[in-house]
Design goal:
Elements lengths: L12 H4 L17 H4 L7 H4 L10 H4 L10 E4 L7 E4 L2 E2 L1 H5 L4 H4 L3 E6 L8 E4 H17 L7 E5 L5 H12 L2 E4 L6 H11 L3 E5 L1 E4 L2 E4 L1 H13 L6 E5 L17 E3 H4 L13 E2 L3 E7 L7 E6 L1 H13 L8 E4 L6 H13 L3 E5 L10 H9 L3 E4 L1 H10 L13 E5 L5 H11 L5 E5 L33 E4 L14 E5 L9 E2 L3 H8 L17 E9 L5 E6 L3 E4 L2 E4 H8 L5 E11 L3 E10 L7 H14 L8 E4 L13 H8 L13 H12 L12 H4 L6
Parallel strand pairs: 4-17, 6-7, 6-8, 7-14, 8-11, 11-12, 16-17, 16-18, 18-19, 19-20, 29-30
Antiparallel strand pairs: 1-2, 3-13, 4-5, 9-10, 14-15, 15-23, 21-22, 22-24, 24-25, 26-27, 28-29
Helix pairs in contact: 7-8, 9-10, 12-13, 15-16, 20-21
This protein binds 5'-O-[(S)-ethoxy(hydroxy)phosphoryl]adenosine.
The site of 5'-O-[(S)-ethoxy(hydroxy)phosphoryl]adenosine has 23 residues, from helix 13, strand 20, strand 24 and strand 25.
């Protein structure tokens, strides 16, 4: 096969094909109780979505939506690789998630909000109430002059006002860009600037681990940061955690800041017709970390995205309108957008929103909530599973809930954690789907179809219906299943949920996801454009994929992608820091955590104060989620002769592994100095192989 790989990379074949040593796990069949009630029971479903039926097979997904005008073309590839799905159609996501359910499910709960303080009552919002609230907020946004195509940034916590405001935007075609509430004001500001938003919507405060956080403070920092970067924000709309009462200390800025609840008084009971928007209009932006420091806004479409998350919520999560579904992710991440808000609501589901941390006030909290609300579908990440297992291994037994299906997402799950999830949380009755996908992909890429495929701990399974994965080595040759070799997992074909582009940066979109394996940059044939996901993977003889982690320099901390370059530039905001390098370290609970190496400028004392300031800088620029496990001040960074920092060497040291041959470095002596600093005088390094993502960390630059 022809491929576009530079000749010098050809020699790396053997290195790229690192053998993967792992024990084959056994299969677990879905329970007999689950199978007959499942939405998708056709054993031939994957064949029905075979490549020979592509792209027409995806008509079935579009048929799950209600259209104002039918589409004409299933997939338009004329501007490859900028795919256009269901072209010619007119549609509205808010209508599909709310209005169309009113007749049948008006009095059924759409959201159940569970506040973190256990004494506070749940807030149940049925579809009728949701309709009223979405319309009022849409009327307010329209009243502010906002219209289809405008961007609005949100920096909201996990409260019902977040999906309400999302759906209000979708009603008008306003592109929402929600920044994870735990990100810092600065991180929010840089995303405001990139998206060109003139309006920021936030909330005064929210509960997190027993504290009522002053969140409004972040809005002021965000607006200031955006202004410094050249983007003015005219309006800051502040929701109140307790309506009618201001729960933050930070003052409101006259002329700029308003309480949403005050403004809404003028829009009471108002209705806004959902706008008939083109299929390929953008629905939202979701910023994600890449290999450079600049955040990239994954732009998702209205129709393709909504069709994809609707179908996968129905077939994979197995949501029926009668179910009570709870995904513990945060709406600030893609999982929350796709599988708390859009997918479940398009299916008339009942979606639980929990404000706080799962272990507050104790590790029994999720199971108490599940019992009280009758949750029967549960969705979370390995990091939460490990935490709940560590703090309360027996807790699930104390509560009388029963899940029928469960999902894990965000990072690879160790078979041991998987088995606890299956045995204790699922009580050996619930099926588990291990769903592998990315912000960029809108919805699931690999997963089992739960009533059809047996589960295998640690493996996500085959491609989802209509998704055709392939693993390539560095030269573009396919790595066959069962070979035990790992490579770069790609998807052969586009699918409706795929991002449209990186907001404002077409070149970066092509370069990041396609350049490596594209066969002809001029081609309009989708077969020439496999989508590179950025993960290492191996395919077993049975066809199931096992994901090994990121192959770029992105660190997946507790299921959240953090860009190494972003972390490093945060360190460099401390003026005394000359150089910074960030590496991933294995962590029992969070999967990976960052460790930071810094070199200070000449004459600067290397003390604890320096370390504290670096940690603070990271928290301010990115957020507490990125807090490093350790910060080391080193005399110099290990470098190649061309001056490139060898992060791989630092990663080996941090992970207590042998550093290998460093004689080709410009400064090999410094490696031993750093090793002693980190590991102590005695050799503690083992020869044990590093996980693939760490072993190859920083190779792609
Ligand atoms: C990782 C989250 C193993 C992977 C939806 C991917 C996983 C990155 C899984 C995307 C899984 C996600 N098994 N690894 N089931 N799910 N990942 O953009 O490395 O926040 O590239 O999207 O998470 O993270 P993102």
């Amino acid at each position: 096969m022809a491929s576009k790989v530079k000749p010098q990379e050809q020699t790396e074949v053997s290195e790229a094909q690192i053998a993967v040593h792992w024990k084959e796990e056994g299969f677990y069949p879905p329970s007999e109780k689950f199978k007959p009630q499942a939405n998708m029971r056709d054993p031939h479903i994957l064949e029905k979505f075979g490549l020979d039926k592509f792209p027409d097979c995806f008509r079935e997904y579009a048929d799950m939506l209600t259209w104002f005008e039918p589409y004409r073309t299933v997939l338009d590839t004329s501007d490859a690789p900028f795919w256009k799905w269901f072209v010619g159609g007119k549609i509205n996501a808010s209508y599909n998630c709310v209005d169309r359910h009113l007749a049948k499910y008006g009095s059924k709960a759409a959201f159940i909000f569970v506040p973190e303080p256990e004494g506070e009552p749940d807030v149940v919002i049925n579809y009728q109430e949701l309709h009223t609230r979405v319309n009022e907020v849409a009327a307010l946004l329209r009243g502010l002059g906002l219209k289809a195509g405008d961007r609005v940034t949100f920096h909201m916590p996990m409260v019902p006002e977040l999906p309400i405001t999302m759906l209000a935007c979708a009603r008008l075609g306003i592109i929402h860009s929600q920044v994870f509430g735990g990100f810092s004001g600065q991180a929010c500001g840089s995303r405001i600037q990139d998206s060109g938003s003139r309006v920021l919507i936030t909330m005064d405060s929210y509960w997190r681990n027993g504290t009522l956080v002053d969140h409004k403070a972040n809005a002021d920092i965000a607006v200031r940061t955006a202004k410094e970067l050249g983007q003015d924000v005219d309006r800051v709309l502040v929701w109140q955690r307790y309506p009618g009462k201001y729960s933050a200390k930070t003052p409101m800025v006259p002329g700029r800041d308003s309480f949403v609840n005050d403004l809404l008084k003028d829009y009471k009971g108002m209705k806004v017709e959902p706008v008939a928007l083109p299929s390929e209009g953008p629905l939202f932006l979701m910023y994600s970390s890449g290999t450079t420091g600049k955040p990239k806004g994954a732009q998702h479409s209205i129709a393709g995205y909504l069709a994809y998350v609707t179908a996968t919520s129905r077939w994979i999560l197995d949501i029926h309108p009668e179910d009570v579904y709870w995904c513990m992710a945060d709406i600030g991440w893609i999982t929350g957008h796709s599988y708390i808000v859009y997918g479940p609501l398009a299916n008339a589901g009942t979606s639980v929103l929990y404000e706080g941390v799962p272990t507050f006030p104790d590790a029994g909290r999720p199971w108490r909530i599940a019992e009280r609300l009758g949750v029967n579908i549960f969705h979370t990440a390995p990091t939460a599973i490990r935490m709940l297992r560590k703090l309360g291994p027996q807790e699930p037994r104390k509560y009388k809930y029963q899940f029928k299906s469960m999902t894990t997402v965000g990072e690879p799950i160790e078979p041991e954690a998987w088995r606890w999830y299956y045995d204790e949380v699922g009580k050996r009755e619930a099926v588990i789907t291990d769903t592998w996908w990315l912000t960029e992909t809108g919805g699931f890429l690999c997963t089992t179809v739960p009533a059809i495929h047996p589960m295998k701990p640690g493996s996500c399974g085959p491609g989802a219906p209509g998704i055709h994965p392939v693993i390539y080595d560095e030269t573009g040759a396919e790595i066959p299943r069962g070979s035990g070799k790992a490579g770069n997992i790609c998807i052969r074909n586009p699918w409706p949920g795929i991002m449209q582009t990186i907001w404002g940066d077409r070149d970066r979109y092509v370069k990041t996801y396609y350049a490596k394996y594209n066969r002809n940059p001029k081609s309009k044939d989708w077969r020439d454009w496999p989508f590179m996901c950025g993960d290492g993977a191996v395919q077993a003889a049975d066809g199931y994929y096992r994901i090994l982690g990121r192959i770029d320099d992105v660190i997946n901390v507790a299921g959240h992608r953090l860009g190494t370059k972003e972390l490093e530039s945060a360190c460099l905001t401390v003026p005394e820091v000359a150089e910074a390098a960030v590496v991933p370290v294995q962590d029992e609970l969070k999967g990976r955590v960052p460790e930071v190496y810094i070199a200070v400028k000449p004459g600067v004392p290397a003390g604890q104060d320096m370390i504290d300031r670096v940690v603070k800088a990271i928290e301010e620029v990115i957020g507490k989620i990125a807090r490093p496990k350790r910060v080391y001040i080193v005399p110099d960074m290990p470098k190649t002769r061309s001056g490139k920092i060898m992060r791989r060497v630092l990663a080996a040291i941090s992970n207590r592994r042998d550093v290998g041959d460093v004689t080709t470095l410009a400064n090999p002596d410094v490696v031993e100095q750093i090793r002693t600093l980190v590991q102590g005088k005695d050799v503690v390094a083992t020869q044990e192989e590093l996980p693939e993502d760490i072993a190859k960390f920083g190779e792609v630059e």
